[in-house]
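Tip: read the tokens left to right.
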């Protein structure tokens, strides 16, 4: 009975007999969704998703790769590896720098607990994996 009085107070013109008999009135309260409305919502959603993925792709290619690694970006750090001894140069496949104690600058892509992965400067190579034990450490070069 409370439901029927509330519906009447809200200005609806539903018969009390439908409420009192236990029939469900909830489907009749919502206006029917037309197919054109549903198609418009689907089209707007598809276009929005398309633009979202296009923007994410643009951001990854042009913006994220320019943000320095130190502040959470995707720009690799420029580093020089320090050799433990002369024999380490052959084991690591790193090119020695002018001083002989360190490598030429490399772009550090990934550092794990056991390895370093750097972008290779040699033709035909994309990346080099270096065991952490093979080098004494690395020097982070300032970005220019």
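Filled-in amino acids:
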């Amino acid at each position: 009975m409370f439901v029927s009085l509330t519906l009447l107070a809200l200005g609806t013109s539903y018969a009390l007999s439908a409420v009192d008999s236990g029939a469900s009135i909830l489907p009749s309260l919502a206006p029917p969704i037309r197919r054109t409305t549903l198609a418009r919502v689907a089209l707007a959603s598809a276009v929005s998703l398309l633009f979202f993925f296009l923007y994410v792709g643009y951001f990854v290619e042009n913006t994220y790769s320019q943000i320095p690694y130190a502040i959470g970006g995707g720009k690799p750090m420029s580093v020089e590896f320090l050799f433990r001894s002369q024999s380490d140069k052959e084991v690591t496949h790193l090119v020695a720098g002018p001083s002989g104690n360190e490598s030429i600058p490399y772009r550090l892509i990934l550092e794990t607990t056991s390895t370093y992965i750097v972008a290779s400067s040699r033709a035909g190579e994309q990346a080099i994996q270096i065991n952490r034990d093979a080098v004494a450490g690395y020097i982070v070069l300032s970005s220019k």
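The chain has three domains: 1-30, 31-66, 76-140. The radius of gyration is 33 Å.
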